[in-house]
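Run log, item B.
One chain of 130 residues. Sequence copied directly from the ordering sheet:
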Amino acid sequence: VRLVESGGGSVQAGGSLRLRCTAVGLALDNYAIGWFRQAPGKEREGVSCISWNGESLYYIDSVAGRVTIPRDNAAVGTVYLQMDSLKPEDTAMYYCAVDRSYSKILSFVRNESSSAPRYWGQGTQVTVTA
């Protein structure tokens, strides 16, 4: 099993990007999804997460209202991170992670637990220019 992120790139402030997380060897319809990012010289931070059925969502304050996690294609192994109104401070390497436990991912996104989600991707770079 592996996760592959794509869709990153360079965009001007105010623009949008749709990051893709594709699972190889795993259907994602029964998995909770988390997105994380790490900017140069900074620690990794959780960005957002969603439960397997889409009923539970969490976003960090800095991205609330600008980020969604479409998971319509989760059954075929693909989920997304839709980012709008991008800001230079959104520049980072973005990672997806999945786990059967939403509470586990939520706790990790909120930095309340050191128990990491089971599967991780290798990351995709997002650069937002002013």
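Observations after the first pass:
- Residues 28 and 74 are 5 Å apart (CA to CA).
- The longest helix spans residues 102-109.
Flagged for discussion on Thursday.
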